[in-house]
Amino acid sequence: EDQVTQSPEALRLQEGESSSLNCSYTVSGLRGLFWYRQDPGKGPEFLFTLYSAGEEKEKERLKATLTKKESFLHITAPKPEDSATYLCAVRASSGSARQLTFGSGTQLTVLP
Amino acid sequence: DTEVTQTPKHLVMGMTNKKSLKCEQHMGHRAMYWYKQKAKKPPELMFVYSYEKLSINESVPSRFSPECPNSSLLNLHLHALQPEDSALYLCASSHGILRTYEQYFGPGTRLTVT
Question: If DSSP states are collapsed to H, E and C, what string results for chain A?
Answer without folding.
Answer: CCEEEEECCEEEEECCCCEEEEEEEECCCEEEEEEEEECCCCCCEEEEEECCCCCEEEECCEEEEECCCEEEEEECCCCHHHCEEEEEEEEECCCHHHCCEECCCEEEEEEC
